[in-house]
Specification:
With 235 residues, this protein is an alpha/beta fold. 65% of the residues lie in helices and 10% in strands. The protein contains 9 helices and 5 strands, in the order H-E-E-H-H-E-E-E-H-H-H-H-H-H.
Length: 235
Amino acid sequence: MDSQRVPLRTRLGQRFFAWLARRMSQLEGWARRTELRKGTRVDVHGLAVVMHEADPVHSRACLDKVTAALDVVAEYDPRSLEAMRSHFSAILVWSWMVAANGSYLHSERLCMLWCDYVEDEDTEPARIAMTLIHELTHAKHARRARRGRPMDRAQAEWLCIGAELAFIRKVPETEHLRRAAAARLERRADFYSPAATAERKLEHLEDTGGRRWAAFLRFLQRRRQRRQTAAGQGR
Protein backbone atom coordinates (compact mmCIF):
# COMPACT_ATOMS: atom_id res chain seq x y z
CA MET A 1 0.00 0.00 0.00
CA ASP A 2 1.23 3.52 -0.81
CA SER A 3 2.54 5.10 2.41
CA GLN A 4 0.84 8.40 1.46
CA ARG A 5 -2.54 6.70 1.80
CA VAL A 6 -1.81 5.43 5.33
CA PRO A 7 -3.06 7.88 8.01
CA LEU A 8 -0.29 9.85 9.72
CA ARG A 9 -1.34 8.61 13.15
CA THR A 10 -1.06 4.99 11.98
CA ARG A 11 2.41 5.54 10.53
CA LEU A 12 3.59 7.23 13.73
CA GLY A 13 2.24 4.38 15.83
CA GLN A 14 4.03 1.83 13.68
CA ARG A 15 7.31 3.73 14.02
CA PHE A 16 6.95 3.97 17.78
CA PHE A 17 6.26 0.29 18.27
CA ALA A 18 9.24 -0.59 16.08
CA TRP A 19 11.39 1.69 18.25
CA LEU A 20 9.93 0.20 21.45
CA ALA A 21 10.62 -3.32 20.22
CA ARG A 22 14.28 -2.42 19.61
CA ARG A 23 14.68 -0.94 23.10
CA MET A 24 13.01 -3.91 24.79
CA SER A 25 15.18 -6.26 22.75
CA GLN A 26 18.31 -4.51 24.04
CA LEU A 27 17.16 -4.89 27.65
CA GLU A 28 16.25 -8.51 27.05
CA GLY A 29 19.66 -9.23 25.54
CA TRP A 30 21.46 -7.94 28.63
CA ALA A 31 19.22 -10.00 30.94
CA ARG A 32 19.57 -13.11 28.79
CA ARG A 33 23.37 -13.02 28.75
CA THR A 34 23.37 -12.63 32.53
CA GLU A 35 21.08 -15.63 33.08
CA LEU A 36 23.03 -17.86 30.69
CA ARG A 37 26.21 -17.01 32.56
CA LYS A 38 24.91 -17.34 36.12
CA GLY A 39 22.01 -19.81 35.84
CA THR A 40 21.93 -23.49 36.80
CA ARG A 41 22.78 -25.69 33.79
CA VAL A 42 21.75 -29.36 33.55
CA ASP A 43 21.68 -31.94 30.76
CA VAL A 44 18.30 -33.47 29.89
CA HIS A 45 18.10 -35.97 27.03
CA GLY A 46 21.24 -34.45 25.54
CA LEU A 47 19.89 -30.90 25.72
CA ALA A 48 21.32 -28.12 27.87
CA VAL A 49 18.59 -26.71 30.13
CA VAL A 50 19.50 -23.48 31.94
CA MET A 51 17.44 -22.28 34.89
CA HIS A 52 17.67 -18.60 35.84
CA GLU A 53 18.90 -17.65 39.29
CA ALA A 54 16.09 -18.32 41.76
CA ASP A 55 15.38 -19.99 45.08
CA PRO A 56 16.04 -23.76 45.11
CA VAL A 57 12.37 -24.76 45.37
CA HIS A 58 11.39 -22.69 42.34
CA SER A 59 14.39 -23.93 40.36
CA ARG A 60 13.70 -27.57 41.15
CA ALA A 61 10.01 -27.24 40.23
CA CYS A 62 10.84 -25.69 36.85
CA LEU A 63 13.60 -28.15 36.02
CA ASP A 64 11.37 -31.10 36.93
CA LYS A 65 8.61 -29.77 34.65
CA VAL A 66 10.93 -29.27 31.69
CA THR A 67 12.45 -32.71 32.24
CA ALA A 68 8.96 -34.25 32.25
CA ALA A 69 8.08 -32.35 29.06
CA LEU A 70 11.18 -33.63 27.29
CA ASP A 71 10.28 -37.13 28.50
CA VAL A 72 6.94 -36.72 26.66
CA VAL A 73 8.72 -35.65 23.49
CA ALA A 74 11.18 -38.54 23.80
CA GLU A 75 8.36 -41.06 24.16
CA TYR A 76 5.95 -39.85 21.48
CA ASP A 77 8.14 -37.99 18.97
CA PRO A 78 11.81 -39.04 19.25
CA ARG A 79 12.60 -37.51 15.85
CA SER A 80 11.63 -34.08 17.17
CA LEU A 81 13.83 -34.63 20.22
CA GLU A 82 16.75 -35.38 17.91
CA ALA A 83 15.94 -32.22 15.91
CA MET A 84 15.98 -30.17 19.12
CA ARG A 85 19.51 -31.37 19.83
CA SER A 86 20.48 -30.06 16.41
CA HIS A 87 18.55 -26.77 16.45
CA PHE A 88 18.69 -25.66 20.12
CA SER A 89 21.94 -24.44 21.64
CA ALA A 90 20.10 -24.51 24.99
CA ILE A 91 16.69 -24.20 26.62
CA LEU A 92 16.61 -21.19 28.94
CA VAL A 93 13.92 -21.05 31.64
CA TRP A 94 13.72 -17.49 32.89
CA SER A 95 11.61 -14.64 34.22
CA TRP A 96 12.00 -11.95 31.56
CA MET A 97 8.95 -9.76 30.82
CA VAL A 98 7.81 -11.70 27.76
CA ALA A 99 4.27 -11.78 26.40
CA ALA A 100 4.54 -15.40 25.35
CA ASN A 101 5.10 -18.73 27.09
CA GLY A 102 8.03 -19.52 24.83
CA SER A 103 10.19 -17.96 22.14
CA TYR A 104 13.09 -18.81 19.87
CA LEU A 105 16.09 -16.55 19.29
CA HIS A 106 17.40 -17.34 15.81
CA SER A 107 20.75 -15.56 16.17
CA GLU A 108 21.70 -17.70 19.20
CA ARG A 109 19.67 -20.83 18.40
CA LEU A 110 18.19 -20.41 21.88
CA CYS A 111 14.80 -21.71 23.02
CA MET A 112 13.34 -19.72 25.91
CA LEU A 113 10.51 -20.62 28.30
CA TRP A 114 8.82 -18.26 30.76
CA CYS A 115 9.41 -19.69 34.26
CA ASP A 116 5.99 -18.74 35.71
CA TYR A 117 4.29 -20.59 32.85
CA VAL A 118 6.49 -23.64 33.43
CA GLU A 119 5.93 -23.73 37.19
CA ASP A 120 2.18 -23.02 37.10
CA GLU A 121 0.32 -26.06 38.43
CA ASP A 122 -2.13 -25.79 35.52
CA THR A 123 0.72 -26.19 33.00
CA GLU A 124 1.14 -29.91 32.48
CA PRO A 125 4.27 -31.43 30.92
CA ALA A 126 2.45 -32.20 27.67
CA ARG A 127 1.61 -28.50 27.30
CA ILE A 128 5.26 -27.54 27.75
CA ALA A 129 6.18 -30.23 25.23
CA MET A 130 3.85 -28.52 22.75
CA THR A 131 5.62 -25.22 23.37
CA LEU A 132 8.98 -26.87 22.68
CA ILE A 133 7.60 -28.31 19.42
CA HIS A 134 6.31 -24.84 18.53
CA GLU A 135 9.74 -23.27 19.04
CA LEU A 136 11.44 -26.12 17.19
CA THR A 137 9.25 -25.33 14.19
CA HIS A 138 10.37 -21.70 14.41
CA ALA A 139 13.97 -22.92 14.36
CA LYS A 140 13.34 -24.98 11.24
CA HIS A 141 11.55 -22.04 9.61
CA ALA A 142 14.58 -19.84 10.30
CA ARG A 143 16.71 -22.16 8.20
CA ARG A 144 14.18 -22.11 5.36
CA ALA A 145 14.11 -18.30 5.47
CA ARG A 146 17.88 -18.17 5.10
CA ARG A 147 17.52 -20.31 1.98
CA GLY A 148 15.22 -17.75 0.40
CA ARG A 149 11.84 -19.10 1.47
CA PRO A 150 10.59 -16.53 4.00
CA MET A 151 7.02 -16.25 5.29
CA ASP A 152 5.31 -13.55 7.29
CA ARG A 153 4.83 -13.69 11.07
CA ALA A 154 1.22 -14.87 11.02
CA GLN A 155 1.96 -17.65 8.55
CA ALA A 156 4.92 -18.78 10.65
CA GLU A 157 2.79 -18.88 13.81
CA TRP A 158 0.02 -20.86 12.11
CA LEU A 159 2.63 -23.32 10.86
CA CYS A 160 4.01 -23.73 14.39
CA ILE A 161 0.55 -24.26 15.89
CA GLY A 162 -0.13 -26.85 13.22
CA ALA A 163 3.04 -28.66 14.32
CA GLU A 164 1.79 -28.53 17.92
CA LEU A 165 -1.46 -30.17 16.86
CA ALA A 166 0.30 -32.88 14.87
CA PHE A 167 2.44 -33.67 17.91
CA ILE A 168 -0.21 -33.61 20.62
CA ARG A 169 -2.47 -35.94 18.63
CA LYS A 170 0.12 -38.64 19.31
CA VAL A 171 -0.16 -38.13 23.08
CA PRO A 172 -3.12 -39.89 24.75
CA GLU A 173 -5.67 -38.11 26.95
CA THR A 174 -4.86 -34.64 25.62
CA GLU A 175 -8.15 -33.67 23.96
CA HIS A 176 -8.28 -30.40 25.93
CA LEU A 177 -4.85 -29.41 24.63
CA ARG A 178 -5.86 -30.23 21.07
CA ARG A 179 -8.93 -28.01 21.37
CA ALA A 180 -6.85 -25.15 22.76
CA ALA A 181 -4.36 -25.40 19.90
CA ALA A 182 -7.17 -25.50 17.34
CA ALA A 183 -8.59 -22.30 18.88
CA ARG A 184 -5.21 -20.55 18.50
CA LEU A 185 -5.30 -21.36 14.79
CA GLU A 186 -8.36 -19.10 14.54
CA ARG A 187 -6.40 -15.96 15.52
CA ARG A 188 -6.38 -13.20 12.92
CA ALA A 189 -3.15 -12.15 11.22
CA ASP A 190 -3.16 -8.73 12.96
CA PHE A 191 -2.80 -10.53 16.33
CA TYR A 192 0.85 -11.05 15.37
CA SER A 193 1.59 -7.51 14.17
CA PRO A 194 4.52 -5.64 15.81
CA ALA A 195 2.12 -3.14 17.39
CA ALA A 196 -0.10 -5.86 18.88
CA THR A 197 2.92 -7.81 20.13
CA ALA A 198 4.48 -4.74 21.79
CA GLU A 199 1.15 -3.86 23.40
CA ARG A 200 0.85 -7.37 24.86
CA LYS A 201 4.36 -7.02 26.30
CA LEU A 202 3.36 -3.78 28.03
CA GLU A 203 0.19 -5.36 29.40
CA HIS A 204 2.19 -8.35 30.61
CA LEU A 205 4.65 -6.01 32.30
CA GLU A 206 1.76 -4.30 34.09
CA ASP A 207 0.26 -7.64 35.18
CA THR A 208 3.55 -8.93 36.60
CA GLY A 209 4.40 -6.05 38.89
CA GLY A 210 6.07 -3.70 36.44
CA ARG A 211 3.43 -0.97 36.39
CA ARG A 212 5.98 1.81 36.82
CA TRP A 213 8.07 0.52 33.94
CA ALA A 214 4.98 0.18 31.78
CA ALA A 215 3.82 3.69 32.69
CA PHE A 216 7.27 5.06 31.82
CA LEU A 217 7.28 3.26 28.44
CA ARG A 218 3.77 4.56 27.69
CA PHE A 219 4.94 8.07 28.60
CA LEU A 220 7.80 7.68 26.12
CA GLN A 221 5.26 6.49 23.55
CA ARG A 222 3.10 9.59 23.95
CA ARG A 223 6.08 11.95 23.93
CA ARG A 224 7.56 10.33 20.83
CA GLN A 225 4.20 10.47 19.03
CA ARG A 226 3.82 14.18 19.88
CA ARG A 227 7.28 14.96 18.51
CA GLN A 228 6.66 12.96 15.35
CA THR A 229 3.30 14.66 14.85
CA ALA A 230 4.91 18.08 15.27
CA ALA A 231 7.67 17.17 12.86
CA GLY A 232 5.12 15.97 10.31
CA GLN A 233 3.06 19.14 10.57
CA GLY A 234 6.16 21.28 10.17
CA ARG A 235 6.94 19.90 6.73
